[in-house]
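Hi R.,

As promised on Friday, here is the backbone we talked about, encoded as structure tokens. Could you run it through your design pipeline when you get a chance and send me back a sequence?
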């Protein structure tokens, strides 16, 4: 079976980095100058904490495309990490170090397509699996990359619901799930649920009753001091 880029990306989403490298190398053998495939290989090496291999591979990308934004950004990050913490101690800024990152859990995870996305030159710096930040601004949830650069926003219905939970003590992590010319899809995961919301899911399923969809987190007497 001929290796495909889609298969390689899916393996990365599953956290199967060794197999992802193997498949990407098959693709590279047919197209040695494919810097997108080289970037995926370097990214997988980073996930496996093989920073030296990642650096060498990103440097190969720059020989083909001297201004490649992904290689430049990740090389800078790797060099900074090696100087400050050493490769064994750093905490990567990408997801799926295990195969559990993208496992969907009812009420606790959500795949979301961003709205009002940033310009193409900013999106070009992003990679599948990269961690991102959710920030509350002006009653909206802005999505920022690891350099705190704006990349998009959550749709209003999801954003308004999450703002209440976030301000009430829930914690969430998020990462890039897919990038294409039409937009950016992210994966959001509830990491911690505050006691006041113990029976309230962060995300509602489309098939849930309309009344449940329109409900907001309750504001009982123990919920009067949510704001910090």
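Update: got your reply. Pasting your designed sequence below so it's all in one thread:
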């Amino acid at each position: 079976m001929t290796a495909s880029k889609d298969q390689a990306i899916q393996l990365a989403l599953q956290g199967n980095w060794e197999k992802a490298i193997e498949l990407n190398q098959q693709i590279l053998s047919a197209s040695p100058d494919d810097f997108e495939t080289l970037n995926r290989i370097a990214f997988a090496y980073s996930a496996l904490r093989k920073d030296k291999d990642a650096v060498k591979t990103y440097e190969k990308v720059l020989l083909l495309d001297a201004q490649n934004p992904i290689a430049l950004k990740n090389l800078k990050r790797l060099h900074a990490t090696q100087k400050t913490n050493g490769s064994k101690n750093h905490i990567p800024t990408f997801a799926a170090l295990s195969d559990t990152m993208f496992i969907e859990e009812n009420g606790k995870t959500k795949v979301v397509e961003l709205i009002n996305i940033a310009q193409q030159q900013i999106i070009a710096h992003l990679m599948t699996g990269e961690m991102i930040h959710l920030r509350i601004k002006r009653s909206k949830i802005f999505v920022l990359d690891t350099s705190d650069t704006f990349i998009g926003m959550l749709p209003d219905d999801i954003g308004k619901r999450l703002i209440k939970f976030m301000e009430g003590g829930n914690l969430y992590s998020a990462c890039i799930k897919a990038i294409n010319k039409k937009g950016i899809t992210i994966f959001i995961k509830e990491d911690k649920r505050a006691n006041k919301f113990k029976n309230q899911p962060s995300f509602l399923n489309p098939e849930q009753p309309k009344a449940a969809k329109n409900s907001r987190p309750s504001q009982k007497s123990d919920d009067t001091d949510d704001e910090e």
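One thing I noticed while checking it: The beta strands are 109-113, 131-137, 140-144, 150-153, 171-180, 183-192.

Thanks again,
M.
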